[in-house]
């Protein structure tokens, strides 16, 4: 337990002292400001949450996970990390926990900033009921995308860097945008968060119980593959 907490503290220090957290947050806030002047509270909050259901969730969170698992190679600290008296499973779980918490923090800061921006912009029709509704939808979308980062962590580890996992994230975004509006979207992991948001009102292709299991299966498989790869990383 102590080694796991120590590993989390180390990973926290690495992430929050890097340019990654500030850079991604700045991008999220910039896009949020751009969307502020275009409509009322309902449409504005829906647009913000939709961004987390799609681009922010896939690319933004993917970048966080890619950096968390891939930086050890670019910084040439991978072999030193494996030599530490900490189990490799502990390292993987610590990295996963820190990356997941970072994604939630990014989402909550952006949502709070969106509300503040809406008041500054003088939007009409503010409702606490709608804020609670879209906050819940935001948390659901973040949970789904955090789970779906499992394959990204594996690709970052196996490819020993950032390029392939970022490319994978962009590819899945394109696939989600193309296939998400078709019946196939309800069974495509990266389309499901956006369809979940649409399903909270009206959706042409509503989700079913199997749809919610698909991200869990894909994410669990990715995390298990990451753990297995790190177990034999010094033989790769």
Beta-strand percent range: under 5%
- Provide a count of the helices: 11
Q: What number is the mean pLDDT?
A: 84
What is the helix content?
Answer: over 70%
Structural class: mainly alpha
Q: Judging from the principal axes of the Cα atoms, what is the shape?
A: globular
The main sheet comes to: none
Extract low-pLDDT stretches.
none
Tell me the distance between the termini.
Answer: 28 Å
What this model shows, in words?
The protein is mostly helical and 236 residues long. The chain has one domain. Helix content is 76%, strand content 0%. The chain contains eleven helices and no strands. It has helices spanning 2-16, 19-34, 41-53, 55-74, 78-82, 88-120, 128-147, 150-159, 163-179, 192-199, 209-231. Helix 6 runs antiparallel to helix 7 and helix 8 (150-159) packs parallel to helix 11. The longest helix is centred in the middle third of the chain and has 33 residues, at 88-120.
């Amino acid at each position: 337990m102590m080694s796991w907490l120590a590993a989390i503290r180390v990973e926290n220090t690495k992430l929050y002292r890097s340019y990654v957290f500030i850079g991604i947050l700045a991008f999220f806030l910039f896009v949020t400001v751009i969307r502020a002047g275009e409509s009322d509270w309902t449409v504005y909050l829906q647009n913000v949450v939709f961004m987390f259901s799609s681009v922010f969730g896939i690319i933004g969170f993917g970048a966080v996970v890619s950096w968390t698992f891939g930086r050890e190679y670019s910084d040439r600290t991978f072999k030193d990390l494996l030599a530490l008296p900490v189990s490799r499973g502990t390292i993987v779980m610590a990295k996963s926990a820190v990356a997941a918490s970072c994604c939630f923090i990014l989402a909550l800061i952006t949502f709070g900033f969106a509300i503040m921006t809406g008041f500054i912009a003088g939007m009409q029709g503010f409702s606490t009921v709608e804020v609670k509704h879209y906050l819940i939808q935001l948390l659901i979308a973040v949970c789904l995308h955090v789970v779906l980062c499992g394959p990204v962590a594996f690709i970052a580890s196996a490819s020993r860097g950032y390029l392939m996992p970022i490319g994978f994230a962009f590819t899945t975004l394109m696939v989600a945008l193309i296939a998400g509006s078709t019946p196939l979207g309800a069974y495509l992991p990266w389309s499901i968060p956006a369809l979940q948001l649409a399903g909270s009102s009206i959706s042409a292709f509503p989700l079913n119980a199997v749809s919610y299991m698909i991200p869990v299966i894909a994410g669990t498989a990715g995390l298990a593959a990451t753990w297995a790869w790190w177990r034999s990383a010094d033989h790769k």
